[in-house]
Each structure stands twice: as C-alpha cells, then as structure tokens.
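Obj: model holo form, ligand = pyridoxal-5'-phosphate.
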Amino acid sequence: MTDDSTSDATSRSEAVFERARAVVPGGAQTGLRAQAHDPYPAAFERASGATLTTVDGETLTDYHLAFGPIVLGHGHDEVDAAVKATIDEGVLFGAGTTELEAEVAERLANLLPSVEMVNFCNSGSEATYHAIRLARAHTGNDKILKFEGCYHGWHDYVDVSVYPPADELGARHPESEGMLPAAVENTVVVPFNDPEAFRAAMAEHGDDLAGVILEPIPHSVGCLHPTGDFLDALESETDARDVPLIFDEVITAFRHSPRGAQAGLGVTPDLTCVAKAMGNGYPVAAVGGRRDLLEQAGGNNTSGVVISGTYSGHPTGLAATRETLRLLEEEDVQAHLTRLGRAYREGLADLLEDRGIEGRVVGHRSIFSVQFGATDEPRTYADVVGIDEERFREFAVGMRERGHFFTPNPYKRHHLSLAHTDDHLREYLEDADEVLAEL
Ligand SMILES: Cc1ncc(COP(=O)(O)O)c(C=O)c1O
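Output (holo structure tokens):
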C-alpha cells in the first residue's frame, strides 16, 4: 500500500470515509479518531476479543482499544449478556432510582478508597465538569489548578495546556478555538512532578482556588510516574487550604487496579472521576468522593449543586459496570495485564537497543508507548514535547501494514486487554523488529 492508497485492501474503507466526510466534519466523530484515517481510511465493522475488522475484511490486532475502555476484550460475552438482560427489563426509567444504581454506587464506594458517595454520568468530561462544580460550590472560589500534559475532557474549564507547543510551556494554552476566555483565565497551569512550582502556585493562588485536578499517572502523554515528593506536596498543600484534590482516574481506575491508582499511590483525593474501563466499552462514568462534597448535589434541582443528565445512570452502562467490576475482581485480570504489559515494554526496549534506535518505552501495567528521539524517563510534559512525531507515524503505519492497529498520534498509548495473549506479543515484537529495521 502507498500513502495515498486506494488499493483493493482499503477500497471499501475509502468509500465509507468519503461518504462520512460529506456529512460528518473530518469524516469521524472526533478529531482524534480522524487521525486513524492516516494514511489509509479506517472504517470498521466488527470488534471481537483483541481484534478489529475493517469493512474491507482486514483483521487487525487492536492496541488502541477505543482510547482505553476495553479492558476485558471487545464483545465480552458475560458483560454483553448482562447488558442484554437489563435491556429486557427496561432501557431507561429516568425517574426516581433503581436497585442497580444503588448497587453499583455501593460497589464503587467499597472499591475506591476515597469514595463515600457517587453520582453517575456518561462520559469522563461530564465527570470532571461535575467534580469542578462541586469543588467551586464547596469553596466559593473560581480558579482551578491543573497540570501541563493532563487531559480532563473537552470542556472549557480544563481543555487548557494539554499539548502546548514548546514555546508555550508555562503559559495557558487553550486547546480549542471558541473557548470562553474567562474559563481559560481561571485555569492555573503548573508543570507535573514539580513540587516547588506547585507550592509556589498554591502560595500565589491558594486563596482563590476551587480545586486541584490531575491524572495521578498522566497517560494523555504516554506515561508520567508521579514522584513521592510531588504527591506529598499535593496532599499537604490541598489539605492545609481545604482545596479539594480531584483525581481524574478516567484511564487509571479499574484498568490499573479495581481500587484505582489512588490505592497504589497512597493518596486520598477528595473527589475522583472514573469512566472508560469501568464499563468495558459501554458509556458510563461517575464522580465520587467525600460525603460532604457529594451531598451538595442532594437537592431537588432547585437548590445546592445541580448535577443533571437524561441518561445519567443508564441501565446499560451500569449493568456493564457491575459485570466488568465483578470480573476484574474475581478473575485477577490485573495479573495477566501486568505481566503482559511488562513483556511488551521489555521486548520493545530490547528491540530499540538492539537496533541502536534513539527512543524509550514508557508505561504502567497494561499501558505502554514507544517514544522516539528521547531516552530518559519523562517526568513532566516538557520531557515529552520534543519527541519524534514523524518517526512514530512511520512506525504506526508499518505496524498497521502488518496487522497491528494503534493511532499514529505519538502522544497516545497502546492498551492491552484480557483478550491479548502471548501469541499477540510474539507477533507484535516480530513485526516491530521488521518495522524498526526499516525506519
Ligand atoms: C484522563 C481523562 N480524563 C477525561 C477524559 C474525558 O473522557 P470522555 O472522552 O469520556 O469525555 C479522558 C478521555 O480520554 C481522559 O483520558
């Protein structure tokens, strides 16, 4: 295939892409998904286990896993059966409550160390939006402090300095046109893993802050491991000023541990946002946390904090969550994901070394990224901003030609699921060796 391929192997995908592009901006539902059309259009018709099948009948091993939700594999029989059984009882009640809601909320409160109460919604962005509203109501303050390289969703409060260009490090960088300037101005941006910069920002803005939000292990830029002194500073500074600490565990919770990254890091946030892996692909998310913070939303929509949503607590998402969490706990999925993740990372790192290619492999448990043009372990976003984007794209294209799918975006990551096996590992490493030899 060539870069402008319309060969037989992708001709139906090409036709679907053209059809979509006429009526869907960019020919995909999100800009990040549109990147997967590069260099060949990607139109899919089936997802099963660890594979995706295109409309051209091409079967690809999926390392993208829809940006992370698929932790048990696509189309997991037991999760899908639980959802189908729920549909038979009623698709949407939309009034009062259900036993399923209470049960899944109890389960989240039991699993996530910091969570006492839970409010459901349908996406990670909604969860972070609600968390910030709760934090603003609690403190009476406007400003939110976030960290460079952390993504918390598309809304104006947080879509700032996720991927700032090198010449905008340290500044507020709105990620989109059309954002409300006042929202951007009320977002304080600090480098990740820099306790001194964080303390200085707290000293400057602490009295005006409504909350501090972070991905505890930022995967929006591959993987940054938080240092102990940074975590200590986060906890002590936010405690001292009664500023809610918000963990965005949209990627990390349930994928890295049924108890969230917070359990392993030993930090107790005040609010936690979860989504993605909790439902193995069904739309479901939640904000949880301290009772007094969540109870602000306990009014009847005329007082307190309004948290609203026609589809919040949708039975399909909750049935999927109940079953996914059961499987994650009972079947020790973590052991498989952790072992396999380490084997991919070590195998890839060996290949880079053997071929003398400048690059590094970063990750945690079932997540990994290969980043070209840099070697030391990244600690902060500034360590990631200069990676070799074009080389990664060539790697992604070469791997796709050999049947392995991940987006050509160099800041994104590979994910593994329970459906990935040692055979996938072997095939991946053999093919990666070939592709790296050609780079
Ligand atoms: C850490 C994190 N927070 C929030 C979000 C937003 O979630 P959603 O896309 O479901 O709105 C994402 C999405 O990728 C994410 O990775």
